[in-house]
Specification:
Number of strands: 2
Shape: globular
Strand order of the largest sheet: 1-2
Number of domains: 1
Number of helices: 9
Radius of gyration: 19 Å
Order of helices and strands: HHHHEHHHEHH
Helix content: 55-70%
Structural class: mainly alpha
């Protein structure tokens, strides 16, 4: 029964986690998918999109905090907390993409060479994101590792502070590449401008909050890393952190 529950949770984490990310990438490339039309006027569209974005921000940033994870571990086994977070975040992100209301008013459209360059930036940012996920060797966004360790009767190992690949240029390369993905859409409507601004601000705030957790986890080693490597924008061609 325990093994059945574990693999069910793993399956759901993969489905909702990966599925919502694929939908998010499609949304960033195309814009609103117009899956559900609520018949709102322009002001109503922007207010509705603002509200569902805030719901995701509160859920995602609230549940990722260590204080909430400690609270949740009172009710479910600690090994399942990260997967529960991935499942719930995937469901909410699915809802955002499905119910996002597209504006009919276009602010700007890139054409010709500029459009091709923006599409190339989108593709390069996807490659960069993949590079960032593989650079550290251990990337477990769905909390699968802790469940597998529990099934084997082992305790999850603490991740050391490892700095490789794009992490030598910036401390949060995944956030940087997501920002580039968000802003590389060549068609800027009012709802897309709202999305770009809101989600960029949220990513920056999320990076700041994550910094506090990382300092608490790694102490002086991470403080030294902060002093030498910028948070989001690389300021030099050569890496700021040696191999």
């Amino acid at each position: 029964m325990q093994r059945y529950l574990a693999y069910s949770v793993i399956f759901l984490a993969y489905i909702f986690g990966s599925g919502s990310l694929v939908m998010f990438v499609a949304f960033c490339y195309i814009g609103s998918l117009h899956l559900v039309e609520l018949g709102l006027n322009e002001s109503g569209i922007l207010i509705f999109d603002l509200c569902i974005s805030l719901v995701f921000f509160l859920q995602h940033s609230g549940m990722v905090r260590k204080s909430f994870r400690r609270f949740l571990s009172r009710f479910i086994t600690e090994a399942y907390v990260s997967s529960f977070y991935a499942i719930f975040s995937g469901i909410v992100l699915f809802a955002v993409i499905i119910f996002w209301q597209g504006s009919s008013s276009t602010i700007a459209t890139a054409r010709g060479t500029l459009r091709l360059l923006l599409r190339a930036l989108f593709a390069a940012s996807l490659v960069g994101f993949y590079w960032g996920t593989t650079a550290l060797g251990i990337f477990d966004p769905y909390g699968i590792r802790a469940i597998k360790y529990r099934l084997r009767g082992k305790k999850s190992k603490e991740m050391p502070l490892t700095i490789r690949g794009p992490y030598r240029w910036v401390r949060h390369p995944l956030y940087l590449f997501v920002l580039l993905i968000i802003w590389s859409c060549p068609d800027l409507t009012f709802d897309r401008l709202l999305f770009n601004v809101l989600w960029s601000v949220w990513i920056y705030i999320g990076a700041m909050l994550e910094e506090r957790d990382l300092v608490a986890d790694f102490g002086e080693a991470y403080r030294e890393y902060k002093r030498k490597v910028p948070m989001l924008i690389p300021w030099r061609i050569h890496p700021s952190w040696p191999e």
